[in-house]
From TrEMBL:
This is Enzyme. It comes from Candidatus Competibacter denitrificans Run_A_D11. Keywords: Membrane, Transmembrane, Transmembrane helix. GO terms for biological process: phospholipid biosynthetic process. The chain crosses the membrane at residues 32-50, 107-133, 154-180. Gene3D superfamilies: 1.20.120.1760. One of its GO terms (cellular component) is membrane. The keyword Cell membrane does not apply. Pfam families: CDP-OH_P_transf.
Length: 203
């Protein structure tokens, strides 16, 4: 299933010089993971406290920076420092907490269905849980799309950009969010199905 996750290797290649620089300065993967989490919570708090078009314009660059930090922590762990159990826990927990911190402030948009936003956040969390469940049955951690973490960031970043430049929320946004929720349900299915198929193929 098509997902922005498929371009991750190319994105990592662009960031590799930065990863080398961070490693040479003693920055650890866990520090980068925590930085991404704290950044997400800080910006989410700003938007929650001051839900204005200007603050919604913070979302696109922050989501892009968070994607870069998420790629960098993985590269530091795999290529330089070695993965650790604490790092794995921080990575999974940090992603879902950061999602909640960045996306729940959309509840403050006037005229927008709270149910659509809450469903989006809950289904995003469920999709990540479904990805982790693959490990429980002997498969890999699943990242199947079509609405993975990077896809959600692109969608919400685009929405925030439109809202920040004065486009009013309305039916288009309701419809878009519910379509995204449907794609999240499909993502959950694809991850569970992929994990089952992978576990059957394992000796």
């Amino acid at each position: 299933m098509i997902s922005i996750y498929t371009i991750k290797p190319a994105f990592q290649n662009l960031l590799r010089p930065i990863a080398y620089g961070l490693h040479s300065r003693g920055v650890t993967a866990n520090q980068v993971t925590l930085a991404a989490l704290l950044l997400s919570l800080a910006v989410g708090s700003v938007i929650w406290l001051w839900p204005t078009p200007l603050t919604f314009l913070l979302l696109p660059p922050v989501l892009l920076l968070r994607m870069a930090l998420n790629a960098l922590d993985g590269m530091l762990a795999r290529e330089f420092q070695g993965p650790t159990p604490l790092g794995a826990l921080l990575n999974e927990l940090g992603d879902v907490v950061a999602d909640m911190g960045l996306y729940l402030p959309l509840l403050l948009l006037p005229g927008l269905s709270a149910a659509a936003i809450v469903a989006f956040v809950l289904l995003a969390l469920l999709s990540e849980f479904c990805g982790v469940l693959g490990v429980q049955i002997g498969a890999s951690r699943r990242y199947d799309g079509p609405m993975g973490k990077s896809d959600r960031a692109l969608l919400l970043g685009g929405i925030a950009l439109l809202l920040g430049f004065g486009v009013s929320s309305g039916f288009w946004l309701h419809a878009l969010l519910w379509i995204a929720n449907g794609l999240l349900v499909l993502t959950c299915y694809n991850r569970l199905y992929g994990a089952l198929q992978e576990s059957k193929a394992c000796p």
